[in-house]
Amino acid sequence: MALFLYLHFPALQLDHLQLSDQSSNLPVALVDQQHQLLQINAAAINAGLKLKMGLASAAALCPDLQLLPYQPEQQAKVLHSVTQQLYQLSSDIALDNPAGLILRLDGMLQLYGGLEPYWQALSAKLTALTYRYQYSCGATPYAAKCLAYQQAGLITADNRLFNNALNSSPLSATELIPAMQQQMIRLGIHTLGQLQALPPAELARRFDSQLLSYLGRLRGDYYHALEYLQPEPGFSRYLELLYDISDSTVLVKPLAKLLQQLEQQLSRASCHCYQLLLSLFFRDNPPLKLSIGSAQGEYKAEAWLALCQLQLESLPLPEPVYGLQLDVNHFAGQQHATAALFNQHQARMSALQLISLLQARLGQAAVSGLTLQDQHLPEKASKRSPPLTKGAIGQPVLALRPAFLLATPQPLTEAVTINQGPERLCPDGWQLSAQRDYYIGRNQQGQWLWLYRTVSQQWFIHGWFS
Amino acid sequence: MSALLDQLARRQLVWHGDSQQLAYQAVSSGYQELDQQLGGGLPATGLIDIQTEAGIGELRLLLPYLQQQQQQSQRLLVFIGPPAELSADMLAGSGLELSQVLIITPGEQPAFGQGLDKLSKLTTAAKNPKSVKKLSPQQQALWAAEQCLQSGCCASVLLWPAAISLAHARRLQLAAEQGAASLIVFRHSSQTLSLPVNLSISLQPDPQGLQLTVLKRKGSWPAASFLVSMHQQWPALCLTGTAEPLRQAG
User: Is A466 within 8 Å of B60 when comparing Cβ atoms?
Assistant: First the structure.
């Protein structure tokens, strides 16, 4: 027998907003286009407000009520992220917009060894999410939904209990449209039990097919197709800030929350990532996109936060930020570095971690490696490369070269003692006019200079031996 | 009487001048005269202060030491703020592993590689630039040095600072000890501020190599200056005395 669990989140958008700011005790409510209260927080309930109340009576009851618009697309995002997090515990989850989830349980019971341990794990997770929820099991998705709306809280596989509860359910908990509910009530039918007791053939004659199809699915006579969720490959979360933040160092707090979620997802998948894309949203300017990289790959929120902090510290914000978006496109499997057992000094971080740290603060270009090129011209023989790049092996090395080369050679203006030379170097293509004769010289201060003489007998300093 | 002396010595209240013990682990410098004078070589960890003019052979003096430091521990060698472009030929020729060399040039670029033009456009419109802490290249260099030393994955860090204060030096010394790394600071000899270092030497040019004075050494007293000959290692960079001076007008 199939078994379903329905989770209903009565105030998902509001709870999500309150997550980022638990300190305020103001009554908050979400209103829809028709000016009806759709979601209210605990402070508002205490003030005597009720759902579906009009704005006028709400304002009369509670003058300092804070109103926010209900945004279905915002709520859908939150619901989706809840689904992603529950997916780690339960495999078959279908979204039921705008505020519900249908979980198919019969496959999971085998894994958890019964309904009790399964619910324990799931409810622990739900409590950690801190959204208010109502739940119930049922033999079909609609049955579970109907019971969850009444806050039945049935965690059982007992069909008798389900039937009893369903038979006494009011019609307002069903999926029937309000007009039809009204029609039923006029006929004296107040509960589902009464409706189900009527012969289907009679119902089919008097009502449209919608009712029969609903009842059929409720009883399990008709097949109810559910679209189960497939997990996303990457990570993408958006966080709307409660108030605009104009100081980039304050952004660290809300960012930590996003990184924590990333860490959870990464550690569950036993992965790490090399790059984060952080977008800061402004009201007037286009969003600012930052990419934060770690050469070694990290999964810990702490490590990522340190890297983000370094970038944010030196970041000027053109105007206050109202939203943050964190994207990770690619997860990579974790590889653990092996350290020597008898090493005396335990390094605090690896070379790659050090490089990402330095690059985060100083910029990509300020940190580089050095490779030897197969070139005879001194200015081309050394090349700045990305850090820790291995150059070609077996490159011939000219040892008698100055340690320091000037980027642009400077004219020689002092007396020098020539000690060695010349060494004639000619640029590619044997441009004889550009050939240079190199000498090693020592000036009065005892500095060893690397000089060259051009064809036109001009002397330049190209570097110095250090 | 001798029992009393014994006791004093055990409680480290008297100090023997003849039994100098090295306060640090020494790594051979590759130059015999220097090893002899320094009682084994240059310190493997901690600060080494070198007061020198540029280009008289200060790096050459250190190359064998750096090569050993790098090879022994298989860790990084970091150059922070070198005065000009480093030559790969020279470093590779002295036996350094180039893939384990890191060059940090602070102040090369603003802190963002990506979206640079967009950012600068945004910054000009910024109304609150004071909320941003911008480090000067000098501060960046010191910060980078401290991070490298602390990380424990660098064998030696070479730093060319514009100026270094006592507080900075103390911080760097602590970081170096924590990460078991050595920091070599190249300063102009005009900066006479004494720093809390393991070894402080002053270099003067000499036709045969370098004239070296030990200004300060942990667990020892200063000695007379002596010559470090580079004839063996760098014959091309020593005067033989016969070369003709060449005059060149600017």
Answer: yes
